[in-house]
């Protein structure tokens, strides 16, 4: 009898793991790129406008995610709830590259989380 052609279960697991590691590395790089190339200059601009009330909040953890989500979503979605950061002002001072890095940040992390959930649910 001939062996079945195609990818077997253990090959799939290895491929999934390798793709998952690439996705996680991409997410980590997006975090660093957004924090260094977008968040820090935006904080500098906010300090110049005397509107910085978040830069001392934490290390580059939730603060990075906060800046990114405020750039990804339209400012009116936040209503009167600014959560440390005025989304209208942030959109006004952000460049298109800042917004693109924010989108990269969130898409890469959502993908990484989805891959991790898929790994725990479907890979033995």
Defining key terms:
DUF4328 domain-containing protein, 124 residues, membrane, transmembrane helix, mainly alpha, transmembrane
Give an overview in words.
Keywords: Membrane, Transmembrane, Transmembrane helix. It comes from Rheinheimera muenzenbergensis. This is DUF4328 domain-containing protein. The chain crosses the membrane at residues 14-35, 102-123. With 124 residues, the chain is mostly helical. The chain is 69% helix and 0% strand. Helix 1 (9-48) crosses helix 2 (62-72) and helix 2 crosses helix 4 (96-122). The longest helix is centred in the N-terminal third of the chain and has 40 residues, at 9-48. The two termini are 28 Å apart. 19% of the residues are buried. The mean pLDDT is 86.
Broad shape:
elongated
Helix content: 55-70%
Q: Tell me about the largest β-sheet.
A: none
Which runs of at least 5 residues are low in confidence (pLDDT < 50)? Answer: none
Count of DSSP helices? 4
Cα gyration radius (Å) = 19 Å
Series of H and E elements = HHHH
Number of strands: 0
Beta fraction: under 5%
The residue-averaged pLDDT reads 86
State the secondary-structure class.
mainly alpha
Transmembrane segments: 14-35, 102-123
Protein name: DUF4328 domain-containing protein
Keywords: Membrane, Transmembrane, Transmembrane helix
Compact summary:
The chain is mainly α. Helices cover 69% and strands 0% of the residues. The chain has four helices and no strands.
Lay out the secondary structure:
Layout (H helix, E strand, L loop, with lengths): L8 H40 L13 H11 L14 H7 L2 H27 L2
Keywords: Membrane, Transmembrane, Transmembrane helix
Protein name: DUF4328 domain-containing protein
């Amino acid at each position: 009898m001939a062996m079945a052609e195609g990818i077997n279960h253990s090959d799939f697991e290895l491929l999934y793991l390798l793709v998952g590691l690439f996705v996680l590395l991409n997410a980590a790089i997006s975090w660093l790129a957004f924090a260094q190339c977008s968040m820090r200059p935006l904080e500098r601009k906010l300090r110049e406008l005397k509107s910085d009330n978040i830069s001392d909040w934490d290390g580059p953890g939730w603060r990075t995610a906060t800046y990114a989500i405020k750039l990804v979503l339209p400012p009116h979605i936040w209503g009167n709830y600014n959560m440390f950061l005025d989304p209208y002002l942030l959109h006004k001072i952000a460049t298109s590259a800042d917004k693109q890095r924010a989108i990269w940040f969130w898409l890469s992390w959502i993908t990484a989380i989805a891959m991790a959930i898929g790994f725990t649910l479907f890979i033995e």
